[in-house]
Amino acid sequence: MINKDLVIIGGGSGGMSAALEAYALGVKDILILEKNDYLGGILNQCIHNGFGLQEFKEELTGPEFMSRFSKAVKEKGIEYRLKSNVYDISKDKVVSYSNEVEGFVKVKAKAIILTTGCYERNAGAIQIPGDRPSGVYTAGQAQLYLNCYGYLVGKRVFILGSGDIGLIMARRMTLEGAKVLGVAELMPYSAGLNRNIVQCLKDFDIPLYLSHTVKQVIGKDGHIEKVVIAKVDEKFNFIEGTDMVFDVDALLLSVGLVPNVDLISKLGLHFSRTRGAIVNQDMETEVEGIFSAGNALHVHDLVDYVVSEAREAAKGAVKYLNGELKNEGHVYDVEASNGIGYVVPQKIYVDEAEDNLIFKFRVRKPYKMINLVIKEGDEVIRKIPKLAIIPSEMEIVKIAKDKFKKSSNKITISVEEK
Amino acid sequence: MTELTCIICPRGCHLTVDENLNVTGNSCPRGEAYAKAELTHPTRTLTSTIKVISSNATRVPCKTSEPLDKDKIFKAMKEINEVVVKAPIRIGDVLIKGVAGSNVNIIATKDID
């Protein structure tokens, strides 16, 4: 068995930035395990621009953003293994992985960071009605085929779900000569960023059908031929007489992302409302010395935020390795209350926290003219007025920890309508 | 009279612009600037991929070196899809000079060995 101070599972933007942060803080005995044969994760296929405005104060494409980290990892000589699939981790921090060079390997780590990213919900996950033909892809799959291998999956395309990947693929496939017939969204509002609705749909006159979803997929000889879209009411029941039939050769699904938590489930941990692990202020899971960050913890809007959260996890791991993270002293449970979908972190050991407590959360639905209220027990710690707030944009609130009085063990975040 | 959705912040103001480029409906000066640029000289950064000869990759991702006039985008795509480049390529290498008759270049966004 090999011994390592820090094992990082997943060599995407999160894993690499965690490794670089830990390295900068003096932990040099690091191993990054990556399942693909390249570093950088999903950004390799995200060739569009818009990355790095927070991190580098400039607008980069995915590959450019990722390359800055992979170059730094290589320059510093941080050890990494490609094509290495982690198939098990244990509470005593033994990581089991395999690759074609080393075979089956066990590593005993002093600390672990899980930056395994997220995966796309697929046709099975949303129980899409109708036939099961070929030609139905997740938007990310179609993106991989097109941007990394040069294959266009269809010429007449319909997209279900208005998540950002779907919107970006609508533009990308249009540029490559496909006809994108429309984008349907179940909810009465888009799940994607406004800028993407304008740049990806309006620029190319692609219709967005809100409160619509797929009623039936129709295949012929095993391939998709038609898709029936219909309008839904507030209870998501189909409204009769609203059917629209589109002749298609591909259907793309952009219906949500879910943290990849296979390894966390092997540890038998609880899941939070993010569908990722439950973590404390240092991104430490319920197992001491095992940390989680990035899309593996909760799905982020921007890779810039993934990077900064992975750095927090790395700082936490270094604190743990130095014996400074003991989960002692006054503790808060952090709760998502009225109107809030989830909050990260879910636990705060305030005596061991940095000077500022950072809360990341999303609202459940779009609101206008509200206050975000952060309370300790019944006492209001901060009220933040918001002109407009939407679920697809994560809120980040920093509050100095000395504002909290340790008078209660509960912090709640809620929406107060005016 | 033109109607636009402002893309500067999540509020997404509904902007109305008249013939004399007077902007209404914006909540801040940034909305006005966006609307004027969008109506006088709309540009977009274009990203795509180019066929590459390499033992490690079949496509090299690329982008315009600066935003390109919106009406030249499909012409640029046609040129991008006619070019074949050879590895090694470094980020920032010019792959097409003056795409679609503009002063804008197409540059690589990934190292390919």
Concise structural overview:
By secondary structure, chain A is of the alpha/beta class. Chain A has helices at 13-24, 62-75, 139-149, 164-175, 194-201, 262-266, 303-321; strands at 2-9, 30-33, 49-51, 60-61, 79-81, 85-89, 94-99, 103-114, 118-120, 136-138, 156-160, 179-185, 208-210, 212-220, 223-231, 244-247, 250-253, 257-259, 290-292, 331-336, 340-344, 347-349, 356-363, 367-376, 379-389, 395-400, 410-417. In chain A, α1 (13-24) packs parallel to α2 (62-75), α1 crosses α7 and α4 (164-175) packs parallel to α5.
Please tell me about this protein's structure.
The complex is a heterodimer of chains A (418) and B (113). Chain A folds into three domains: 1-120 and 256-327, FAD/NAD(P)-binding domain, CATH 3.50.50.60; 122-255, FAD/NAD(P)-binding domain (3-Layer(bba) Sandwich); 329-418, Immunoglobulin-like, CATH 2.60.40. Chain A has helices at 13-24, 62-75, 139-149, 164-175, 194-201, 262-266, 303-321; strands spanning 2-9, 30-33, 49-51, 60-61, 79-81, 85-89, 94-99, 103-114, 118-120, 136-138, 156-160, 179-185, 208-210, 212-220, 223-231, 244-247, 250-253, 257-259, 290-292, 331-336, 340-344, 347-349, 356-363, 367-376, 379-389, 395-400, 410-417. In chain A, the strands form seven sheets. In chain A, strands 1, 2, 5, 6, 7, 8 and 19 form a seven-stranded mixed β-sheet that branches. A five-stranded parallel β-sheet of chain A has the order 10-17-11-12-13. In chain A, strands 22-20-27-24-25 form a five-stranded mixed β-sheet, with no helix packed on it. In chain A, a hairpin with an 8-residue loop joins strand 3 (49-51) and strand 4. With 418 residues, chain A is α/β, with parallel strands linked by helices. Chain B has 113 residues and is of the alpha+beta class. Chain B folds into two domains: 2-40, no CATH class; 44-108, CPE0013-like (CPE0013-like fold, Roll). Chain B is 18% helix and 32% strand. Chain B has a five-stranded mixed β-sheet with strand order 8-5-6-10-9. Chain B has a three-stranded antiparallel β-sheet with strand order 1-2-3. Chain B has a two-stranded antiparallel ribbon with strand order 4-7. In chain B, a hairpin with an 8-residue loop joins strand 1 and strand 2 (14-17). Chain B is elongated and about 55 Å long. The mean pLDDT of chain B is 91. The A-B interface holds A 44, 47-49, 59-64, 67, 146-150, 175-176, 193-195, 197-199, 202-203, 387-390, 393 and B 5-7, 10-12, 27, 44-49, 51, 57-59, 61-63, 70, 73-74, 77, 81, 91, 109-111.
